[in-house]
Task: inverse folding
């Protein structure tokens, strides 16, 4: 079924407010989930909301917390997320980064004890919209096996990079796994088999059964090189945020544990050369117009497909399974917000 | 034939000094080239020295320049390399970064007008040896086709990341092409065919002829994701250094043009958690000891192979083609340094 952006935002916001989220925090969390739907990435969309609501109800996520941030060096912000919603903590930190980087030119936030960020592209897009280069990375549960291995040892360790240009920014957002676990969950939820080569089961055997893959390990993208990048991101995030390493990470895919993964956000000022933004935009167009191996498949630049889907979804609505929409509707509470485990901790 | 480190360093240093390089600059450039040999990456080793010597003789590389650096923001160093040797300019900038980052926690150098850096791993290893996280990236001539494309539009855009641990640091160093152009040159120099899938020729047709591949385009690693990372690095380097984009880049593979690619170096202070470095080292060991799909191929961590080869080569020497060693010997000059085009520019 088709859902329109405004209806999805309204429902998601309401569900969060009903569980004690201040309206601005609820609206921000809803925005990040709905943006993933608009861009055609339902794996990071509303299907994650029921679990997030359960996390709030169980005191694993505090919808009021914005995190406690302190500058541990002139341009490095140390953020204890205090179990806040991922987008709320991240955007509070990002605001400080952009202010600080006016003088330092570069600034980094290392975040721990914060809930799932959702789709990273959204954050670096906000940075690029301010004219800055944005980089975001995040760790996760052990879901990916090493190159040549069979056991889940690494997170899917997504990386997002946005570079502003005189036209649309380049927006890269990828998991360093062949596929995100969110997408495997989406296949499992729809009883669809996954392509061969994506994953092995809990015994290290290759599988096309999405349900078995959920308990197994996803292949890293790009062989030894993709594995190397995923492992470097794993160490970067843990090394900067002091957060858990993949085998110890909990709380992004469950409603049972505190979330102990880490996030890193970085903003960098582009060079001031007067024609630079135009040169970058022209170069991206030059790439788009370069010859394709298959003339029916023109060359794309990262972010092109998402931007096209986003524009269409805002006009025409986006697809969602009726089961999920019904499930969300059934989560509406008519009563006033119930106290959460965090209630007593606010002043 | 086998060559020992000290003999290679001595010859390379001498050849550079004979062309006007101050001994410390010559020794540093020689070190970076020989390190690549020791690590088993001859594509970035001494085979690049004859071209570099020719660049000095033609005034395209100034072996005395260290670059002109200024802080364009509190933690961003803008470096005009003034046609200096890549390692000399980079290490001068790196010294400033490490000093500045003592207070800022993170610092970045954006370098243009500098010659080829050689193997990036070496730089991030120097950073990790100081206890810092190091990131290095560099742009190059258009050598890589877009995912789904056939024409060389991107540089090989290498990326290196080192993260210190209580044990050996993780050291990642990769080109975002399926293979480096240096390696294709090495195959061509040895009249060896390249594997299928590495490259297409100047007409966009797949080829296994290394000589034809040199004039064609290399495939990006890792399909759409690897292409995306390579393109993001292309825009990051140009966007930060104000350097040329791949189709306009010259001077890393020729002795005819000024070198207009860009380099980005970054240092970041790890989190101060007391057990963190030990946790990272234990995690890497945990990965190495995790089950392998093929028991005869144990899991490796980026940098393991290079470190093993490096240790062996220091003991036993490294392999080099007799032709190349003879070629280098024939480049010795008995006369005093000849003036270069830059001679008149020094005060």
Result:
């Amino acid at each position: 079924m088709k859902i329109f952006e405004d209806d999805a935002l309204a429902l998601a916001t309401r569900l969060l407010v009903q569980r004690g989220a201040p309206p601005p925090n609820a609206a921000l969390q809803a925005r990040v989930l709905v943006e993933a739907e608009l861009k055609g990435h339902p794996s990071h969309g509303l299907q994650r909301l029921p679990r997030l609501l359960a996390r709030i109800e169980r005191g694993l996520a505090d919808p009021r917390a914005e995190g406690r941030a302190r500058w541990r060096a002139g341009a490095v912000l140390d953020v204890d997320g205090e179990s806040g919603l991922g987008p709320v903590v991240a955007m509070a930190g990002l605001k400080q980064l952009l202010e600080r980087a006016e003088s330092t030119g570069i600034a980094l936030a290392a975040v721990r004890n914060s809930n799932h960020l959702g789709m990273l592209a959204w954050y670096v897009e906000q940075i690029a919209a301010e004219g800055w280069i944005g980089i975001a990375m995040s760790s996760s549960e052990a879901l990916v096996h090493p190159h040549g291995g069979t056991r889940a040892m690494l997170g899917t360790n997504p990386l997002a990079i946005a570079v502003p240009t005189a036209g649309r920014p380049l927006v890269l957002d990828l998991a360093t796994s062949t596929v995100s676990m969110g997408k495997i969950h989406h296949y499992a939820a729809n009883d669809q088999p996954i392509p061969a080569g994506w994953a092995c089961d809990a015994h290290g055997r290759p599988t096309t059964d999405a349900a078995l893959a959920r308990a197994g390990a996803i292949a890293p993208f790009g062989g030894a090189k993709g594995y190397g990048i995923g492992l470097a991101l794993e160490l970067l995030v843990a090394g900067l945020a002091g957060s858990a390493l993949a085998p110890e990470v909990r709380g992004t895919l469950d409603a049972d544990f505190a979330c102990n993964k880490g996030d890193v956000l970085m903003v960098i000022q582009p060079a001031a050369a007067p024609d630079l933004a135009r040169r970058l935009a022209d170069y991206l167009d030059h790439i788009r117009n370069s010859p394709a191996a298959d003339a029916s498949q023109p060359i794309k630049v990262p972010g092109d497909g998402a931007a096209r889907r986003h524009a269409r979804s805002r006009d025409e609505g986006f697809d969602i399974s009726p089961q999920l929409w019904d499930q969300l509707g059934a989560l509406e509470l008519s009563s006033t917000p119930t106290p959460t485990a965090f209630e007593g901790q606010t002043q």
User: Anything to note?
Assistant: The two ends of chain B are 44 Å apart (CA to CA). Chain B touches chain A through 76 residues (CB under 8 Å).
